[in-house]
């Protein structure tokens, strides 16, 4: 009897693939590795043409295990179980889903704790600095090794959104759709400050030893090295992943234990909660990996890399869905909307949605986010989009539509304010290839637009119109 939920991919296994199998070192933007191994997982069946593949770009501390269970005794599934599986937003009945552990991580892909074949010891301080681009290059090599030429979609949240954008920018011929969630074109100065303090906590831990703290390579990484610094860095970062609303609802000023004045411990519930999060993090992550990946994240800046956002996005051919979270103060919605605005002004196909959630930045990882599932599912559901031809047949019965068909010239671009379910734009496209984008606030209507493959912006008419180019 199957003990797993019906909408789970069930038992899964991780695969390790050596990418540097030609004997040559793996080149990075800054340095090289004598060899490179990537760990990945696959969910769902790849089509004969290998054209149904969705690549998941993992966020900062996530690994390749995005869905399912590694054994029948596992109590906790993959980190994006609410989104990936049969009948879910990323439907494994239709798509083959691939997720890999990021370069520099500590869950199978080559990272600082991996053994350097040239020395027989962990890389430690000798591990080269990496970049978001380096991570994407590893993903691309994996995809090519698997014989995949085109991706149905690339999906990433937070730092994963950085990688997803790089995919769409640098390999436009490979990416059909791109979903970015709770991300921006670079970290804000405030976010950089939090990252900097977190790294300082690690490198100033007496047990850090310059990064060479792996006394026993066979021992779990979590019981070695600067565990105090790493725990504190995680506690600090965890605050940025939540919202003030979420923290207040969960903890308020309740006391979980007696105060300890000697240690200046207040006993407040939020204090014990963060201590728990820090200790739990030690069971699955390595301090050096945290340093290298956050460093790569901080260096990412599309405007600096390409000269301007206009230049960065000029090559994108993919249809883009940009999802913001209302209480995300690590990647604030106003900053994220700049992505949608620039794409729109370059006449790219983009939809932009802001989900109302009390959970903050980490909301996209939680199971209690049905709106996220519905929006993503509508955007990816090819079968619904193919049925949208019915819109044109219905619109031909309306006199106002017939009038619009006459006055709007072919190849025009239309902005439909209060577009409803997108029927007008959809019909104009099928009749005369007139491109359009809708503006709408109602989420049900937005889902209907996305299901028709109609670009839609969930923007306020009083503030969004002035920024849109003619």
Give the strand tally: 17
Number of domains: 3
**CATH fold-level name of the largest domain:** Rossmann fold
Briefly note the structural class of the backbone. alpha/beta
What is the CATH architecture assignment of the largest domain?
3-Layer(aba) Sandwich
List the strand order in the largest sheet. 1-4-8-5-11-12-13-14
Radius of gyration: 23 Å
Oligomer: single chain
Shape: globular
User: In CATH, what is the homologous superfamily of the largest domain?
Assistant: Alpha/Beta hydrolase fold, catalytic domain
Question: Could you list the spans in which at least 5 consecutive residues all have pLDDT below 50?
Answer: none
How far apart are the first and last residues' alpha carbons, in Å? 60 Å
Instruction: Please report which band the strand proportion falls in: under 5%, 5-15%, 15-25%, 25-35%, 35-45% or over 45%.
Output: 5-15%
Range of helix content = 25-40%
Largest sheet: 8 strands, mixed
Number of helical segments?
A: 17
What is the CATH first-level class name of the largest domain? Alpha Beta
Report the average pLDDT across residues: 92
């Amino acid at each position: 009897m199957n003990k797993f939920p019906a909408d789970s991919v069930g038992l899964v296994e991780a695969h390790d693939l050596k990418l540097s199998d030609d004997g040559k070192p793996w080149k990075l933007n800054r340095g090289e590795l004598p060899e490179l191994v990537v760990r990945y997982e696959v969910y769902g069946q790849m089509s004969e043409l290998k054209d149904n593949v969705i690549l998941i770009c993992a966020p900062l501390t996530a690994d390749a295990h995005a869905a399912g269970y590694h054994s029948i005794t596992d109590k906790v599934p993959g980190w994006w179980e609410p989104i990936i599986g049969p009948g879910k937003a990323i439907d494994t009945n239709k798509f083959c889903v691939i997720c890999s552990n990021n370069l520099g991580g500590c869950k199978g892909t080559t990272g600082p704790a991996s053994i350097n074949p040239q020395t027989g010891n962990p890389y430690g301080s000798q591990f080269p600095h990496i970049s978001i681009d380096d991570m994407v290059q590893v993903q691309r090599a994996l995809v090519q090794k698997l014989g995949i030429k085109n991706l149905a979609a690339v999906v990433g949240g937070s730092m994963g959104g950085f990688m997803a954008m790089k995919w769409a920018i640098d390999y436009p011929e490979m990416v059909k759709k791109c979903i970015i969630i709770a991300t921006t074109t670079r970290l804000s100065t405030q976010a950089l400050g939090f990252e900097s303090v977190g790294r300082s906590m690690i490198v100033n831990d007496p047990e850090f030893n310059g990064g060479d703290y792996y006394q026993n390579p066979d021992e779990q990484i979590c019981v070695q090295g600067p565990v105090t610094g790493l725990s504190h860095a995680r506690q600090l970062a965890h605050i940025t992943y939540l919202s003030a609303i979420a923290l207040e609802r969960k903890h308020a000023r309740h006391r979980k234990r007696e105060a300890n004045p000697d240690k200046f411990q207040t006993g407040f519930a939020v204090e014990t909660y963060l201590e728990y999060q820090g200790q739990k993090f030690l069971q699955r992550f390595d301090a050096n990996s945290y340093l290298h990946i956050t460093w790569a994240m901080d260096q990412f800046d599309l405007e600096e890399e390409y000269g301007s956002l206009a230049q960065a996005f000029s090559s994108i051919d993919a249809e883009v869905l940009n999802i913001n979270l209302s209480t995300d103060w690590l990647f604030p919605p106003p900053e994220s909307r700049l992505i949608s605005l620039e794409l729109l002004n370059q006449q790219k196909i983009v939809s932009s949605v802001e989900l109302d959630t009390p959970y903050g930045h980490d909301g996209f990882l939680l199971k209690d986010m049905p709106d996220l599932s519905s929006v993503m599912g509508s955007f990816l559901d090819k079968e619904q989009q193919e049925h949208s031809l019915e819109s044109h047949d219905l619109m031909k019965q309306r006199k106002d539509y017939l009038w619009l068909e006459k006055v709007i010239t072919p190849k025009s671009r239309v902005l439909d304010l209060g577009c409803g379910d997108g029927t007008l734009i959809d019909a104009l496209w099928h009749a005369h290839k007139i491109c359009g984008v809708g503006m709408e606030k109602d989420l049900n209507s937005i889902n209907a637009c996305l299901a028709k493959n109609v670009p839609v912006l969930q923007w306020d008419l009083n503030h969004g119109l002035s920024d849109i180019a003619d």
